Amino acid sequence: AVDGRPAGTRSRNGADRVLAVLPATPAAAVAARCLAYWRRDPRYAMGGAVAVVLPLLLVVIPFSNGADVGPWVLWAGPVVAFVLGWSLHADLSYDHSAFWLHLASGLRGHHDLLGRVLAAASWQAPLLVLACAAGTAVSGRWELLPAVGGLTAAVYCAGVGVSVVACALVPYPVAPPGGNPFSTPRGAGAATLLVQLGTSTAVALLTLPSAVLALVAVAVAPWWGWLGLLAALLLGPVWLVLGVRLGGRVLDSRGPELLATVSRS
Fold first, then answer.
1. Could you tell me the CA-to-CA distances from 140 to 53, 54, 79, 210 in Å, in that order?
2. What is the pLDDT of residue 265?
3. pTM metric for this prediction
4. How many Å apart are CA 101 and CA 2, to the nearest integer?
5. Which terminus of the chain has a lower count of CB atoms within 10 Å, N or C?
6. Span 77-108, pLDDT tens digits
7. For residues 138 and 79, is the Cβ–Cβ distance under 8 A?
8. Euclidean distance between CA atoms 33 and 108, whole angstroms
9. Helical H segments across the chain, by residue range
């Protein structure tokens, strides 16, 4: 059911405990279901694997070329934040035909998207904190932690905000549940490329204030990083709220059309 917590989710572990503090709302029910997807669906697991591999590449590539690892690994947090936040642009498509349950139950669009955001953030936020701390520790530049943390928060919030709008506005067919996560349904290649390019560009533009301040902090003086962190704390929640609200309105107005699109494989 989407009007409370499903009975099968009473036994909680890991990220589920984060949701235990939430009231029994439609968004919390959606979040519980999405967390099950994150644990069991290989299409979701692939995104999590990429988030783990990328920081390793920031170490391996410069090390194999005899370069200093520090300047590269410093940006592990923002890189992981981009991958995780941006990956939600396909979240609705991953539901496939199961999305009809949301339509049949009368679930409001913003509750649907808020639940997806809560599920992702419950395990991704701690991972991003770890990536920022590890990156600054390995680089030996703890004074840049505010800059790195601000840029990471800005990238993640912008990525999630853009993605929840995109998943409702321009969904595209993906591999069906149980299918090869690396496969692309016939005819979806061009649409996939356009959506990914558009969402990536939008995230970059929304992140620009914190990105500029982070670069100034590295090149000029670390205290600029505090301004970047402030910008992220002010603008990040705005992108999240706007994304959920705007995407929710699209979901409410285009539900049947979206179901037809995401059900194709």
1. 21, 20, 18, 21
2. 56
3. 0.85
4. 9
5. N
6. 999 999 899 888 888 888 887 788 878 788 89
7. no
8. 16
9. 16-19, 26-40, 42-64, 70-73, 76-86, 91-94, 100-105, 109-139, 145-169, 189-219, 224-262
